[in-house]
Known about the structure:
Layout: H1 29-53, H2 58-69, E1 73-77, E2 82-86, H3 90-102, H4 105-115, E3 119-121, E4 130-137, E5 140-148, H5 155-198, H6 204-214, E6 222-230, H7 237-254, E7 258-262, E8 266-272, H8 277-298, E9 303-312, H9 318-334, E10 341-343, H10 350-353, H11 359-380, H12 384-393, H13 398-405, H14 409-423, H15 430-446
Amino acid sequence: MNTQSGLCLVSGAPRAEERPVTVDSGPGPRVVEENRVLREVVGLYTQLSGLATQDSDLRSVVALIADRLGVGAMVIDDERDVLASAGPSPQAVEDVHHHLRQLDLGKVLAASARARRAITLPGVDNDVALVVAPIVMGEEIPAYLLTGRPSGGGAVEDLGLLATEHAAMICGIVLGRHRLVASVVGNARLDLVEALLLARDRTEFELHNWARHLGIDDRRPHVVMTVALEPPPGGSAAGLARLGAYVERLLTARLSDATVARRDTSVVAIVAVGDDERAAVDEVTAVGRLCRASSGARYPGSGVNVGVGGVCRGLSDFARSYAEARLAVETTIRMTRLGGVVAFRDLGIQRLLSRVADVDDLRAFAADVLGELIAHERNNSTDYLSTLSVYFQENDSPKRTAKIMYLHPNTVTYRIRRVEEITGLSLSSYRDRLTVQVALEIINGLGDEL
């Protein structure tokens, strides 16, 4: 040991000037990538938040997230209808669609809803991976945002997850704002529509102003349609609202010159039509049948009944047409064999029968007149009631009745005679014939409820 100069040097230790110098080479590739992704996240968050403060729609949000991530993106509602979609290419959007078709989507959406946050689904058989984020509005989840998952792994995939989750939050803000505006506009439109349809002792000037605010041209003839809504058994208020919204959208799309307004349990349409009154009512009634069929297929077990009023030639006629449409829909609800869709002009004697407050009185009348014939049919499997119905429709012609029912005219004559024998009534008597016809109308309306 050398103790000169008071220094104690350990043998073999390098001198200070001989020690190796460590050079700082800067952050590694992973850190650089994470910093880049962080900047991307901050920038994207800023842009998305900007959309929330503007009058933006879902399409704008979806287009931004698709463009920045370079993936397909779409928003679907809780009934799996696509509300908006975008992507760098049509194929990118189709990739998301294709993956959805391979999934048990109900379970996926339920899992995302329970977590109330974004979840990632790996790709299968070359399918693009997906990120599914619930769009939350208070306690409700009305829709979901789905994006293709960016390739690259690690931080890049984290970017896709974080960005999708934040975009879903912005979508919730946009949907909430649009729902509020739609509610205000819808309530205002409903108030004006009800003012037109329920107006009593109003001046033409007032009616004209209300119609003008609704965009109704009072120089054209119109028809009023009303749709009564019933949810499936055990259905919720939310289910009834979805049914109403679907009917409202369908009528708006199918009736181009119509003003449509929705209540809690009904939808009303004021439809501009042509000058041919019969053709006008036929066309609106046909849309009513389409509405009933489509709603039944979309919401099995739901009740959609449609009534169509007469043609209005002036604003003061709207209340009359609306009252006719309501009577028609009430009648078809009571008289189930009318098919759920009926125009007021086609009700015939059902217009009077529908005024009977207690439907049991109608059943009792029909049973008194044709009860023995009904019992005979059930016990002997005869076809007298339908023969009688066609016979009346064909103005008592055995030949025409036989042609329609693929029978021999003598068979028709025999059946009519048996009807008279069983009921004790004579169809050649005006009073008896009228009584049987009214009873038959009740049976045809009530069907198996008799």
